[in-house]
Amino acid sequence: MTMIFRIIPGNEDEAMKLMDQLVRHTRTDPNILLADVYRSQNESRKFFAYLQFTDQAALDSHRGSAYYGEYVLTSLYGMLETSSLTVETYKPLFHHEYHLK
């Protein structure tokens, strides 16, 4: 899942604290393989989030979790320029196994 969004001016610091807490919670879920948030180098209020889930059920569970409700729906959503929000989900074309040495 990818998300691109802008934060309402003046809310950047608080939004980044919330995103940090959200990512910390997300990374404790074994069904979420990757969770990262990036800040645009050209536009300080623009962010990109990338999450990779084991399957659709994991994505659905994430969206229904208490921490998602608290951090995203209750707090962060009010700091977003909602017209800027783009959410996309993708299916992998190829499956690869990665082995760490």
Spatially, the strands of the biggest sheet line up as: 2-3-1-4
Number of strands: 4
Instruction: Write the element-wise H/E pattern from the N-terminal end onward.
Output: EHEEHHE
Helix percentage range: 25-40%
Name the overall outline: globular
Largest sheet: 4 strands, antiparallel
Roughly what fraction of the amino acids lie in strands?
15-25%
Structural class of the secondary elements?
A: alpha+beta
Radius of gyration: 14 Å
Number of helices: 3
Mean pLDDT across every amino acid position: 90
N-C termini distance: 28 Å
Low-confidence stretches: none
Describe this structure in words.
It is a single chain. 33% of the residues lie in helices and 24% in strands. It has helices at 12-26, 56-63, 66-75, and strands at 2-6, 32-39, 46-53, 86-88. A 4-stranded antiparallel sheet has the order 2-3-1-4. With 101 residues, the chain is an alpha+beta fold. The radius of gyration is 14 Å and the shape is globular. The protein contains 3 helices and 4 strands; from the N terminus they run βαββααβ.
Give structural attributes.
single chain; 101 residues; alpha+beta; four-stranded antiparallel sheet; globular
